[in-house]
Amino acid sequence: MGIALSTTLRTSFADAVTRTREALAQEGFGVLTEIDMKATLKAKLDEDMEDYVILGACNPPLAHRAVNADRQIGLLLPCNVVVRADRTDDGSVIVEAMNPQLLVEVTGEPALREIADEVTTKMQAAIDSLHATT
């Protein structure tokens, strides 16, 4: 099992972030947090890096079910979605979402399997929909 569900887009970074937010919303995910790694590392360490944003996505009904199945699952929530410039290909942006199956793998909690399957379906649909508007 891979760590991520991912795709590569030929678009600007700003457009990829906007489209990713919209695709997540279409699947019932809100973005609770946004971490601009480029700006943070520059401000804190004076280090330069490519455009790189981490979006903390949450689908409240599914998160509620997951927390009810395993209270410690909150340690792995929200689902991180990374939008980052491809360092090897100018003009390409990589969008990656944490593979929700990792929740079951890490916890060993069988009650999370059905929830992880639903999250995977929705997250994959969001990722796949990014190509519908390229």
TrEMBL record:
DUF302 domain sequence ranges: 35-100
Transmembrane segments: none
Domain of life from the UniProt record: Bacteria
Pfam families assigned: DUF302
InterPro entries: DUF302 (IPR005180), TT1751-like_sf (IPR035923), UCP021774 (IPR016796)
Signal peptide boundaries: none
Full protein name: DUF302 domain-containing protein
Source organism per UniProt: Mycolicibacterium hodleri
